[in-house]
Amino acid sequence: MGRWGPLRLLAIAAAGALLLAGCTSERYWGGTNVAEEGKAKVGLVTKTDTNPYFVQLREAARKQAAEQDVEFSALAGRFDGDNAGQVTAIENLVQQGATTILITPNSSTGVLSAIEQARNKGIMVLALDTATEPEEAVDGTIATDNVEAGRKQGQYIKAALGETDPQVLLLNGTPGSSVDTQRRQGFLEGIGLKAGDSQILGEDSANGDQNMAQESAENLLQRASDVNAVYTMNEPTARGANAALRPRGLDPLVGSIDGGCQGVGDVQKGDVDATVMQFPAKMARLGVDAAVEHARSGKKISGFENTGSVVITDNPVPGVPSQNTEWGMRNCWGDS
Amino acid sequence: MTTNTADNSKKYTRAQLGEYILRTPAVGPALALLAAILIFSLTTDTFLELDNLSLVVAQSLVIGTIALGQTLIILTAGIDLSCASIAVLATLVMADLAVGGMPGWVALLLGIALTSAIAALNGALITAIRLPPFIVTLGMFTIVTAVARIYSDGQSIPTTDGVLRWLSTQRYLFGGIPVTNGMTIALIMVLGLAYALAKTAWGKHVYAVGNDPEAARLSGISVRRTLLSVYIVAGVIYGIAAWQALGRVPNADPNAYQIGNLDAITAVVLGGTSLFGGRGSVLGTMIGALIVATLRSGLTQAGIDDLYQDVATGTLVIAAVALDRLSRRKQ
Amino acid sequence: MSEQNGTILRARGLVKRYGSVTAMDGADFDLYPGEVLAVVGDNGAGKSTLIKTLSGAVLPDAGEVWLDGKRVRFHGPLDARKAGIETVYQDLALAPAQDIATNLFLGRERRNPGISGFLFRKLDSKRMRAEAQRVFDELGIGITSIQQRVETLSGGQRQGVAVARAAAFGTKVVIMDEPTAALGVAESAKVLELIGRIRDRGLPVVLISHNMPHVFEIADRIHVHRLGRRVAVAAPAEHSMNQVVGLLTGALVMGEDGAITEAQHAVTAGLDQ
């Protein structure tokens, strides 16, 4: 074999591959690969693979897909905010021939053009858990009304404090994310405060991460320790807040949002006073069902489908409907 | 070599083949890429379409471009943990300046100037104070990531500017394959860098410095100047990577490409460049980036979830480094 | 000028201190055209400091160096190289992953004439390969291909590449630091042959070596270094190996007239810093 041997091999292989590509492309050129007539092919794109909430959502969707006997594959961004990862996932699902894409969009504007391209090919795109901005970028949205969930946490804390003037710390999520903005806005509405009010002793972004939340809470408490209520954007944030509060002997009212089984357990133990449960399994089920219906009849769902939220607490307060933790344990992140 | 028996010549050929692969480090990755393409073409109906192949290339452009800069630095036995974060900061600055009414090409050039300046600062710290590249760029990664969040206030900045989006807005058909300006630019960059590395004294010096800096110094090469130039060139490349990123997603986001630093290293390693410096090629790096995108695309077409895709990528990285080590132990 | 006495490289009264340690203590040095001068000395005698001073890697605290009759002061290996002194370091200073031709021209690459060289900085690889091949042919160094990577070569062949580089670019002096230390018998013989050929081309060679048989085989004169200075200059033709070993351990001393006598305190041997 001469000096150019391996290169020649490479060239031949490359030519072969191109030839092969040419052949198959004729079969498929220009069109989407629609799966078997009337049969749904569902792709799910979550924000990450690491958050237990999305794992729950994914597993529920997988189970529902198996029950309905439709093809299913799950993809995700690799970290919160991985727009490029979600774009890649959408493109690959389109190529795979998905009929419906269920997505929990990371940054609402980042993935819009990829979604638009998918919709242009006749694929139904539904936003799960998180709405896009504008909402019309997808065919429909199946999600918790996050303003409402935040408002419920605020109302509970307000009622539990009774006559006492609130002294609140806010532990927010990822700055700029719509979920964070909506929950915070709802909470302030529910408790009856405005941004900048003196009753808000401090706030910080913890990105929904337990360790960051602990650090944020520690730093905020360093500045102001006479708090009587803490807003947390999700349950890991609440756990982080507790890790900062307990060693200091502080026991303010802690409210949270999510309703994961661990979160309900925290309420049961008394670490968290109330959490607002949402129902990702329901989102997944409705999403897969819509995909099946779409494949069968071509009907697309539209608008916003609120999967609801429920306050979970063992210390119910008047005026705020709630369920106890026993109910919560049965239904955590479930399908109510 | 007077008795050239059949056995002897066979051995010679095999040695020559090994030698060829060592001298041309892109051959191994190229064969791996072709193997992956072949496997996915046979196992899925949808992978081997010209549209999809074009898509795979588009998906690998941003990390691939960042990895080109990373390649230069790794060739000098350095490493850049700040590469992707520098590019992300540039996307924010470019998009922001364009939103503020600046012509797109001015915003683009300022963004490239910024990435070059940050990378030059890395290089200056490494050469002037002789700090290890790992530490300098780790620190720079932390700083630049924070600066990006401060600059953007944690918000993403969408852009509609024609120049900033130019790399993906137009598509041409080249032999039936849809080609974007981004792909053309990437190809030009790979060819230009390959030329500079193989055909100029600068390239020889980059390899020599990575191979053995003391030997390079004693041979009369200014190690510091060579290193500094490598970091600056890498900085320019990061600026172009930022442009590619805006082409891909026209929305600059401070949270984007959080693990792009590591993704770039993955592409470099899969491309056959040695982390120990002195060996490797930019062509291999582009192929490395293509391998990652091909796996992602192909495994998705095959209906395999992405956590398993990551398992596959990680396995390949370890295999590539092991091959590098073994091939050198044989010497 | 009158002090030159026809030397090509000459030093007088070199001193170098590292803190409290005196590595060179008034060392002298003379190298004449067309000779192979061996520099021998026990470990720690300061011969490597002497060599580094001559090759520009060390700046002496005191003393003077003349090259070809002109006073020189080297501020780095590059200065010495520019002046025509080439050094073959013990670790050879080669880039193992690069091919032979690249290594030969490392740091001194030739660019293409015209636009491609000026504007596109394109190297004239063809010419560099041809020149490298010519140097190797002239020196009789056998290699399969000029495009072989250095790491695929044997120890002796690598030494050959480093020596060839020095021979190709050295115009005044070639200094070699322990060129045979890591080599087997056959390869050592080849390198010694090579040294002889370089001398025959008219380039004087300074050879630092521990190996007395090698020194006696190739050197014209022997510079004996002890306790930071030159204590004797011997010649293989006039002195025995035992005498040279005696001189460098201090058991023997050489008088002004060149006569060798037994030292009065032979026990001082081995007390070098």
From TrEMBL, chain A:
It is found in: Cell envelope. Residues 42-299 form the Periplasmic binding protein domain. GO terms for molecular function: carbohydrate binding. It holds the Pfam family Peripla_BP_4. PROSITE patterns: PROKAR_LIPOPROTEIN. Gene3D superfamilies: 3.40.50.2300. Keywords: Signal. GO terms for cellular component: cell envelope. It comes from the Bacteria. InterPro entries: Peripla_BP_I (IPR028082), SBP_2_dom (IPR025997). Belongs to the bacterial solute-binding protein 2 family. This is Fructose transport system substrate-binding protein. It comes from Tamaricihabitans halophyticus.
TrEMBL record, chain B:
Its main location: membrane. The keyword Membrane applies. It is a multi-pass membrane protein. This is Monosaccharide ABC transporter membrane protein (CUT2 family). One of its GO terms (cellular component) is plasma membrane. Coiled coil: none annotated. It is found in: Cell membrane. One of its GO terms (molecular function) is transmembrane transporter activity. Keywords: Cell inner membrane, Cell membrane, Membrane, Transmembrane, Transmembrane helix, Transport. It comes from Tamaricihabitans halophyticus. It holds the Pfam family BPD_transp_2. The chain crosses the membrane at residues 20-41, 53-74, 81-99, 105-127, 134-152, 172-197, 227-246.
Automatic annotation (TrEMBL), chain C:
CDD domains: ABC_Carb_Monos_I. This is Fructose transport system ATP-binding protein. SMART domains: AAA. Keywords: ATP-binding, Nucleotide-binding. Residues 9-252 form the ABC transporter domain. GO terms for molecular function: ATP binding; ATP hydrolysis activity.
